[in-house]
Amino acid sequence: QVQLVESGGGLVQAGGSLRLSCAASGRTFSSYNMGWFRQAPGKEREFVAGISGSGGNTYYADSVKGRFTISRENAKNTVYLQMNSLKPEDTAVYYCARRVGLRYDDWGQGTQVTVSS
Half-sphere exposure of 5 toward its Cβ, with a 13 Å CA cutoff? Predict the structure, then answer.
């Protein structure tokens, strides 16, 4: 099992930016496909962005495409989510997760992002 710890959440005004970080344990981080998810109050958890182990392939939900950027630094066992042009509807708890096959098996504890209008 891989331990994941998110950080970087907070309160920001609409139009602002935040960068989330997710630090992972494990010696083979570069082999992990990683993803970011979010869950707003009263809603189901939804996929936000994903990245391959090498960082060469990235994927985004339509709702964040062009505003969010996922990246990783394998030497630091860390994956990032740069969030720009934030909107109130981006308010949620954000989670990073490790993909194993077709599912995400390891999850962090989450970090709260609140965007005020």
Answer: 5
Q: How far is the CA of 14 from the CAs of 69, 86, 90, 105, in angstroms?
A: 17, 5, 9, 32
pLDDT one-digit tens code per residue, 91-110: 999 999 999 988 999 999 99
Q: What is the pLDDT of residue 78?
A: 97
Q: Which pLDDT value is given to residue 1?
A: 82
pLDDT of 38 higher than 90: yes
CB 34 within 8 A of CB 21: no
Q: Helices (DSSP H) in the chain: which residue ranges?
A: none
How far apart, in whole angstroms, are the C-alpha atoms of residue 108 and residue 4?
5
Can you name the residues that pair with 94 across neighbouring β-strands?
38, 111
Closest CA to 20 of 93, 105, 89: 93
In the predicted model, is pLDDT for residue 26 greater than 90? Answer: no
User: Strand runs (DSSP E) across the chain, as ranges?
Assistant: 4-7, 10-13, 18-24, 33-39, 46-51, 58-60, 68-73, 78-83, 92-100, 103-107, 111-116
